[in-house]
Give the backbone structure.
Amino acid sequence: MLIVNVDYSILSIMDRELLLLGLLRRRDMHGYKLHEFIERDLAICTDLKKPTAYFLLDKMEKQGWISRHDEQDGKRPARRVYRLTDTGEEVFQRLLRQNLSDYHVPIFSTDAGLAFADEVPIAELMRLLEQKRAQIDAELAQMSHVPDHAGLLQLVIEHRRHYLETEARWLESILNRLNASTERGTES
Amino acid sequence: MLIVNVDYSILSIMDRELLLLGLLRRRDMHGYKLHEFIERDLAICTDLKKPTAYFLLDKMEKQGWISRHDEQDGKRPARRVYRLTDTGEEVFQRLLRQNLSDYHVPIFSTDAGLAFADEVPIAELMRLLEQKRAQIDAELAQMSHVPDHAGLLQLVIEHRRHYLETEARWLESILNRLNASTERGTES
DNA sequence: GGGCGCATGTAATGAGTTACATGATTGA
DNA sequence: TCAATCATGTAACTCATTACATGCGCCC
């Protein structure tokens, strides 16, 4: 009856554009390669899908942020290679500064459930939250296997680790409290 | 030329439905009051807009999760009062457990910029990040003024504070490193 | 010759937002 | 009487996603 879906992105279009501009700034690229690179190496930063990449490239070209020249190779579809324009460079600089200086508090989907946590029997609640914690731990474990990345991404990876550790501690503190309350045997 | 927009939600539709069901579970309500309550008291949990609330109520009624009875009061538009059905209760229980046990790593918009931070002169970078930190601090300051909430929300508020403090520390550590590198005078 | 990788897209759908539309009641 | 609040909604738009469509080149 229910459920599938889920999109936990808090990326806005600005950040996607910033990302694309930033990559094109380093070197000219066509959509396929760009998306491949993003999927392979920047999965932590973003979750930009292929049609979205093509769409944004198209749009940015129309806005004059990037220019296009086609490269034919046999009879394949021509590579539409994009290059940052001067306008694009300006936009990049602006978006970058805006991203670096702005802060917006995200709204955590977790919290919707937390607000009703008292509807679940405490033993089951603990079991559920332990499942959640296991997923966080799994993420952390996986991250320790990630080899040193280009300096670029080191900060991003650190941030992610920092965040996950925080969430783990937070969950732990809730579990401890729940545990204490069952041991005192005073809570429902 | 640019910029407006921004939606930093990581709430999926599931969580919105969970929220609405959870509220209707406590007492029957019509859309207007429901939205009012959400906007006033649950702004930390969600950012559900009015038309979205009406839309979801409609949809949930069609799915049989809630039922509707109208209350006329003079010649105003009738209040369409919704009540949780048995099916709705089942769905609520399921969504709640799913929310409590699942975890998905969010993707932070901040990180897109961080990845290109080395494009900004270090002094300016520090200035920008300090602006960001000021916004986090402001959020934290504002939270300390929030009086004790119903037990319900206490955890959510704690989570938010916990998260904001983490982000502040993380930013601080970056700023310290940047500062150290300028003092050594070895970085561009 | 069959399947994977390269390379492009389009179309349909979903979800949510903003802006607009309507009209009664209440209080200054 | 005029503005704010109560109470409902619709319409148009934006953004992103999934699924589909096409076809060449290369390797086993």
User: Anything to note?
Assistant: Residues 1-7 of chain B have pLDDT under 50 and may be disordered. Residues 109-184 of chain B form one domain. The CA atoms of residues 71 and 77 of chain B lie 9 Å apart. The helical segments of chain B are 13-26, 31-41, 50-62, 86-101, 109-114, 122-144, 151-184.
